[in-house]
Design brief:
This protein is of the alpha/beta class. The protein is built from 20 helices and 26 strands. 40% of the residues lie in helices and 20% in strands. The strands form four sheets. Strands 14, 18, 19, 20, 21, 23, 24, 25 and 26 form a nine-stranded mixed β-sheet that branches. Strands 10, 11, 12, 13, 15, 16, 17 and 22 form an eight-stranded mixed β-sheet that branches. The termini are far apart.
């Protein structure tokens, strides 16, 4: 742990780097990251339907960001304790910048939606409104309503409620203004209602009959607009106006852990009585009449710190992630089928293969089925005594859980550590836990005060030749199709013993445990990483090979930020691949160009964590589950493992080098949010994900050729 003097020194540094604007707040850096996703939706060389998907990802990310991070900043900003004044002012400043960036990006988003919609028309895919339908299409919509929506759309009068306190912020709503026909010169006052769109039942987009090569789609919003006379049948209204809106609720409080514990307590006690679940962001159709908008905002009980943003006709654009492809596969990325590694897909025992040599898979380039095979063989093998694993998120129809249940039924002792606090997956994890318990699996529900975020599996054999799998991502078949994650399968006794010790630590989390091989948080991971960086600084000064190359999701921990700055300032080349939050600036003159950061947005979500240190010429390479954030290093159980196999080390170096040289999907992360593209080499554009897939594909093809030649 850090000494008291080191803590004081670093606390001074926290203030210094913030005052000098060389520490970028996490939430501002996140806005820059999400803009990179929006940029991808605007790129002409990205297939059109993939651009729609990126718009959906951008919108979905923003919703979660407001639910969690903006909610936390709101709570800090509301703190009335005098000693928390500085934190309050910082939170207010961050909220102001978020509001500014959100407004700026929202305009770019609307432009992108209009452009992509126009491009869809050019490709014979039409999004039609309710006033653009011909008689045949109109009749289709009426029939669709009667068959699918009748009885499922129930308006609520604004005059009948005081607050929208039970409505789900996952959904989209229409605010409706209605008039009855008046008599004489008098016109009755308008009446107001809102209704929820039943997107979960029939989707956001309704496909109308094709006409030749032309494909027609309609927003569910417009289907409802078209059918308002049916919905309000018997109410004798003659005029209807309907405008969409959505809102985002406060999901939970998550204050950065770099605040002192005493200050955390003061903020927790000093905030106003803002309840979890209260709305904090509203987006509405800018054409909505002021009288109707007043009804909407009044029912949502907003306060001065909440965000109210005028937008276009449609909201909840996360639904673009499920936009119908209309049979136009030519408007999507070409298929990259996951590669089943030949060495792990034959009839030979996969457990024996791992005992002979360390193995790896890199999903989604490689098929996740290889890991499923490990579990399935372990479930059947009479030589296996027990299986232990950590589960953070689970697929809907999890083959992982099915294999574990099979192992338990075959008499193996199966232990599963499942994290019930995996955000937005809590209910799913609870359901899976019950099923596993019913099958006789020993289920451990995480650790109080520490999220279990490590991705490890331990398989104990009767002969003592145990095996471990250590991954950078969840044991989740769905994620393994879209997230890039690396998994090491090893029988190295020191590493495997440490993995088993992690499970003992989880059951006794506050016992003193030392790990010989693994870097484990919250124990010693941060200090070991700091020592590794210090070694690079010393090696540089001694004239030995020195460099740092890291692929990671987030870097916001102040201690790690400071140490990376120090390394670069003292001449160590620091090259980083950072997908998301990054609190570093690269253009500081004292760094002498030694700090370079790239962020990649492509068809796969970059998720693996790889750490490479020159170590004076004897490279040290690690993989694991931990980002460099306070939550990962101080408040979660995370595992990072060294990699010793020379072939796997070479592959990991290739992954990082390809990413650092990506000129097509890479962006320069400079701390200013410019997100500029790197210069293109004379050889042309380089796309790291495509190059990696082709490399792995050719490697397996060569294995096939070699096997055929030997036969």
């Amino acid at each position: 742990m850090l000494t008291f003097s080191e803590a004081i020194e670093n606390r001074t540094f926290i203030m210094k780097i913030k005052n000098n604007k060389t520490y970028l707040p996490r939430d501002i850096s996140w806005m820059y990251f999400n803009r990179r996703i929006l940029q991808e939706a605007c790129k002409e060389n990205v297939p059109l339907l993939e651009r729609m998907s990126f718009l959906g990802i951008y919108s979905n990310n923003l919703d979660e960001f407001f639910r969690v991070r903006v909610a936390s900043q709101n709570r800090i900003a509301e703190c009335e304790d005098k000693e928390a004044r500085q934190n309050r002012m910082e939170a207010l400043g961050i909220l102001k910048e978020i509001t500014k960036l959100n407004s700026e990006y929202a305009k770019d988003f609307e432009v992108a939606v209009r452009e992509i919609t126009q491009r869809l028309k050019e490709n014979n895919i039409y999004l039609v409104k309710e006033n653009e339908l011909d008689e045949e299409q109109l009749q289709f919509i009426y029939n669709f309503y009667r068959q699918n929506l009748d009885g499922r759309v129930i308006p609520v009068w604004y005059s009948a409620i005081k607050q929208m306190n039970v409505e789900n912020d996952e959904n989209i709503y229409l605010a409706v203004k209605m008039h009855r026909e008046g008599t004489g010169s008098k016109r009755p006052a308008a009446e107001y209602a809102f209704l929820e769109l039943p997107v979960s039942i029939c989707g956001r987009f309704v496909r109308l009959p094709d006409k030749g090569e032309k494909r027609y789609l309609m927003y569910l919003d417009d289907v409802i607009r078209c059918c308002l006379p049916y919905i309000f049948c018997g109410q004798h209204y003659t005029d209807f106006e309907a405008y969409s809106f959505k809102f985002t609720r406060d999901a939970e409080m998550e204050i950065d852990n770099d605040l002192r514990n005493g200050m955390l307590q003061k903020i927790s006690k000093g905030v106003k009585s803002r309840k979890r679940g209260e709305p904090l962001r509203v987006v509405y159709d800018a054409m909505m009449p002021k009288t109707l908008l007043k009804q909407v905002l009044s029912a949502l009980y907003l306060d001065k710190l909440d965000t109210v943003l005028a937008g276009g006709r449609y909201h909840n654009h996360k639904d673009f992630m499920k936009f119908p492809d209309c049979g136009r596969s030519d408007l999507k990325y070409p298929s990259w089928t996951p590669i089943l590694k030949k060495e792990l897909s034959g009839s030979e025992s996969i457990l024996q293969l791992i005992r002979e040599k360390d193995r790896f898979i890199h999903v989604p380039y490689h098929s996740f089925d290889s890991y499923i095979r490990v579990l399935q063989e372990a479930a059947l093998s009479k030589e296996v005594k027990s299986i232990k694993t950590t589960l953070y998120r689970l697929a809907k129809d999890s083959k992982v859980v099915k294999a574990l249940i099979g192992a338990a039924r075959n008499g193996k002792k199966v232990t599963v550590v499942i994290e019930l606090l995996a955000r937005f997956d809590e209910a799913s994890n609870i359901n899976w836990s019950k099923r596993m318990q019913d099958a006789g699996i020993h289920v451990i529900f995480g650790v109080e005060g520490l999220k279990v975020h490590s991705k490890i599996t331990h398989i104990a054999m009767k002969n003592g030749a145990d095996i471990a799998c250590i991954s950078t991502g969840n044991f989740h078949e769905g994620n393994a199709r879209t997230y890039t994650d690396y998994m090491l399968m090893t029988a190295s006794r020191p590493v495997v013993r440490d993995v088993n010790a992690v499970f003992d630590f989880i059951e006794r989390p506050y016992s003193v445990t030392h790990f010989k091989e693994l870097l484990v948080s919250p124990n010693e991971m941060k200090n070991k990483f700091l020592r590794l960086i210090n070694e690079e600084i010393k090696n540089k000064e001694a004239g030995k090979p020195a460099y740092i190359k890291i692929k990671i999701n987030h870097i916001t921990d102040v201690y790690m930020v400071k140490k990376l700055y120090e390394a670069a300032e003292r001449g160590v080349p620091v090259d980083l691949l950072v997908r998301g939050n990054c609190s570093l600036y690269t253009g500081l003159p004292e760094l002498n160009g030694n700090l370079r950061i790239t962020g990649i947005i492509d068809r796969y979500l970059e998720h693996s964590r790889i750490f490479i240190f020159a170590a004076g010429g004897e490279e040290k390479i690690f993989i694991g589950s931990a980002d460099w954030m306070p939550r990962n290093l101080d408040n979660r159980i995370e595992v990072v493992t060294p990699v010793y196999d020379p072939d796997i080390k070479e592959d990991l170096k290739r992954v990082v080098e390809y990413g650092l040289h990506d000129t097509l999907q890479g962006r320069i992360v400079d701390g200013k949010g410019t997100n500029a593209f790197p210069e293109v080499a004379e050889t042309g554009y380089f796309r790291s994900q495509e190059a990696l897939y082709q490399y792995y594909l050719e490697k397996e093809t060569n294995v096939d050729k070699q096997n055929n030649h030997e036969e």
